[in-house]
């Protein structure tokens, strides 16, 4: 009797874990399809455009640190966007934009600088 009960318990647990893993696989594939189809968030697009278009004077220490930090916020925002976390992605992109909007940022005059 104990053997039959143990065998039934083991089979029930195995079947339950199989169903849970099948559901998890299905939800992951659905999320991946959503990620591929989702466009960049507006704040993330603005930050990307601002980083690509502007030429910052990286010889100035403060400007260099702000640009590096804005790039960090962009990469984090992009990871959040890929994960489907729109609020976190927008917040991180807004942080990067606010750093680049400071009035004492220095820009290069007439030469190209790669960030």
Describe the 3D structure.
This protein is mainly alpha-helical. The chain has four helices and no strands. Helix 3 (61-82) runs antiparallel to helix 4. It is elongated. Mean pLDDT is 73; it is low at 27-38.
* Poorly predicted tracts of residues: 27-38
Percent strand equals under 5%
Q: Write down the overall geometry.
A: elongated
DSSP strand tally: 0
Structure class: mainly alpha
Largest sheet: none
Number of helices: 4
Radius of gyration, CA atoms, in whole angstroms: 24 Å
Mean pLDDT: 73
> How much helical structure, as a percent, in the residues?
over 70%
* First-to-last CA distance: 72 Å
- The string of secondary-structure elements, in order, is HHHH
Q: Could you give a quick summary of the protein structure above?
A:
The protein has 115 residues and is mostly helical.
Main attributes of the structure:
0% strand, 115 residues, mainly alpha
């Amino acid at each position: 009797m104990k053997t039959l009960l143990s065998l039934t318990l083991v089979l029930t647990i195995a079947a339950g874990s199989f169903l849970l893993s099948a559901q998890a696989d299905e939800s992951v594939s659905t999320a991946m399809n959503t990620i591929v189809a989702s466009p960049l968030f507006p704040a993330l697009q603005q930050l990307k455009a601002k980083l690509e278009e502007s030429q910052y004077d990286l010889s100035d220490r403060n400007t260099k640190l702000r640009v590096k930090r804005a790039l960090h916020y962009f990469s984090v925002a992009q990871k959040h966007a890929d994960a489907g976390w729109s609020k976190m992605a927008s917040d991180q992109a807004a942080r990067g934009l606010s750093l680049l909007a400071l009035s004492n940022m220095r820009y290069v005059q007439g030469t190209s600088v790669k960030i």
